[in-house]
Amino acid sequence: MQGLMQDVPLTINHLFERAEKYFGHKEIVTATGDGTERQDYAAWARRTRQLGGVLDTLGISDDGRVATFAWNTARHLELYFAAPCTGRVLHTLNIRLFPEQLTYIVNHADDEVIFADRSLLGLLAPLMGTFENLRHLVIMDDGAGEIPDGLDAAGGGEVRIHDYEELLSAAEPVEWPEITDEHRAASMCYTSGTTGNPKGVVYTHRSTFLHTMGAMTVDSLGARESDVILPVVPMFHANAWGLAHAAVATGASLVMPGPDLSGPALAALIVDHRVTVAAGVPTIWMAVLPELEGADTSSLRSIPCGGSAVPRSLSEGYREQLGLPILQAWGMTETSPIAAVCHLDSDQRDLSVEEQAELRTQVGRITFGSEARVVDPDTREPIPWDGESSGELQCRGNWIAADYYDDPRSSESFTDDGWLKTGDVATVTDRGRITLVDRTKDLIKSGGEWISSVELENEIMAHPDVAEAAVIGVRHPKWGEAPLACVVRASGADPSEDDILGFLEGKVAKWQLPKGVVWIDEVPKTSVGKFSKKDLREVYDDALMAD
Amino acid sequence: MQGLMQDVPLTINHLFERAEKYFGHKEIVTATGDGTERQDYAAWARRTRQLGGVLDTLGISDDGRVATFAWNTARHLELYFAAPCTGRVLHTLNIRLFPEQLTYIVNHADDEVIFADRSLLGLLAPLMGTFENLRHLVIMDDGAGEIPDGLDAAGGGEVRIHDYEELLSAAEPVEWPEITDEHRAASMCYTSGTTGNPKGVVYTHRSTFLHTMGAMTVDSLGARESDVILPVVPMFHANAWGLAHAAVATGASLVMPGPDLSGPALAALIVDHRVTVAAGVPTIWMAVLPELEGADTSSLRSIPCGGSAVPRSLSEGYREQLGLPILQAWGMTETSPIAAVCHLDSDQRDLSVEEQAELRTQVGRITFGSEARVVDPDTREPIPWDGESSGELQCRGNWIAADYYDDPRSSESFTDDGWLKTGDVATVTDRGRITLVDRTKDLIKSGGEWISSVELENEIMAHPDVAEAAVIGVRHPKWGEAPLACVVRASGADPSEDDILGFLEGKVAKWQLPKGVVWIDEVPKTSVGKFSKKDLREVYDDALMAD
Prior knowledge:
2 copies of one chain form a homodimer. Chain A is α/β, with parallel strands linked by helices.
């Protein structure tokens, strides 16, 4: 028996229309080099509809890929909506990818136009000749950088260069076409792995609508009209964790940080604009915390943090100084990205400070709307939910990728029954709360037993004389493979190997202790700021062979 | 271009599995005649799966209608999920319908089984012979009432009588079948109008999933794991406003009030169980307020109220006594029902107490996921959003009905372009905030101008000597039609007509003043507690003709 309810496509256009109709009076603030620019959603919505007209004028195909190469700004938000609301596909280019990766994804996605911040043109200019199908480059003047020569040196024909504001002022606002298929592509984002070419995830209107609605639920990020949201996480990667969409959908005010993501700049934005939600990766919050000392942070209600494991000491630092611990969340490009959020359960809020801090090292439960399972890598059976057994985390749901765009490697990442293999190793408590143990590729197998590199790193980074640490598995004459700690000393500190190893005693089992320590200047990072251990493994693979 | 995200049907089964997998430790409390019964979601989920087995054993068709005739209890919640999770269709029978309406809907829906509370069998027994296709009656022992004779006097063949607990204890828990089509019927509810036969709304898995997710967003009801939810609104009508589903989905604790909906009983449940959200119609909250005097109500975070206009004085009474005004919401059977919720905008929270109270007489904005428009009844054009012009409120969205079940009257209630005609007259502010002026059929047209009966009622009910008041349009020799106030005096008070009319002076325009007052013992109510003015109009239609 079929039901008799209306069947209205779930589209990004609905999000846009909420801001346009109901929240025209709310503001978007964008930080620029020398101050801030403000506009309200009414002006933003009008400009976004004009931008729809620009895409028509430029002759972008009905489902053409519209690429962006930009910081978090109000203009970037115009592109976030004008592309999908006209049926086109937003493609956010990660400005931190290697040049050859950028060339690959622009060509692979078949981008017809790139909208680029002027301050980023220096990165783009040398690559213009490699873009095969590009026809337009639209420059967004963000007040910094030069316009280099040779931008029109296209690979497959002439690239026409435009100025964003000139195009916009010549365009009329358009009515959106009706998006009748909620499975229509809305946007693309490529992964930022360290090996091989990036893989393309293609979000649908449906997936973005549901992911946004998820971000509005209390036990996820709880986005709401009264929020003032600072998305430090880049709009050029993984949808800025859904916060840009959620702000528009709920009418929350936005504070766009622009290019300056330094601790002092972000701290000033939080305080000056009474920010309620500020989301970023751990390294961001490490830099911001000291800058908030003595400041009025009473507006903050949530500090979502993910991208890599949130060190317990960082979350506790925020709790002690601000009265607000960090809200750990987990996800990846393939999960839109919000897949798990670590709120304490109501009965856990009575636990001791220590116990609560320990619980916050979890990533929490899979969010409503998605499903998670953790399976033994060998047997493929679900592991026991005992908080100790570990296995690979797999996900299923409407905002989880089903496939990569035109990519033969897809089969490696999805199970036969259609679940995403996340590549994360996890344990699960009896309540379904997930702790990430490691990436499958970073686990260390020593003497037949698995050792979590992440757990060791977190313990080492709690040492006051340590700035950062990465633990890698390297060859070992006796154990086959063994953990090696690559440690960055804190400024002015000079810890010894014995200091580090002694600090770990009693915190991890003896057989899990690193078999050695090497001192490094910094931990190599991926384009999105995650530890990249591949390079360390290459350099130090023989470091323990002399033992 | 199609997107590449997973396409997982949006089903009620997902809600169930959240409670089963993650919140087995959370509790459902059911009030009984002589205390409370408790069970946790783990036990509830197991019983619900057993109930699925019972439906199989009874031979209920794969998409058979499973009717309930019950109070708000944990057992009713088992039925809420066992029916749709096995692919069947839950049909909640409104225990307050007239007997002939019950006969009509049981037969019209083709109910195969009724699950009835023992305490309600007295209402059902005389009708058993009129149910044409009924094959099973399952009695749920709620500790009250007798089992009358003649229950098996079926209309179309033998009705077999069962005991719920006996059936359950003999059944094994079942795996749910896979619901592959999210548009599959999940449940039915008939409207409770005062004229003609009730009309059937058929909810889908998709509509219920999305409506539930909506109830979890902050700017709607904001259901969350830490909630303790008391749904005073009946599960037998309009899905208990989505709170039963939302509690299961979020793992919120539930307090089920059972049959005793008196002020003292509800007040005791709120205090004893540290309820955070309690939802009911205005008459419920009128009775509860005095009982909460001096009680510890610090657990309450929200008191959603709808079904009929929330008198300003009632909301202010809660604000003054509890520090928590009522949260006005609006919806109807056809809207699942949550369609609008009246949260103040962030910048309205700085307004004066008076101004805020005035804003709370609005029903707020249409909730995310649905659309609203207000059109001139004659021209069909949208009215200006000026807070004064009024027109008919129409809705569109995935949890709004598209049609009535097998009913020739459907065409009256939906526009050519598929929007629901709500029958409510509304104004809209420049921010899209809606105020209900009246039902289209209760508007009073006096001397060519429209007068809102609801506005007059609210003003009159603010008089301390008035218990209740209904304003109706009756024949008038000069004005064609004119407002007549039908007033119930407060206990022990004896106001005069001049007292009432004098009280209104300066509050409404002079030409809108009622042309007379009649004193009645109570305002007639519909089966769901709304004012039913049809009877009053019949009795008093000539009351002003002597003027």
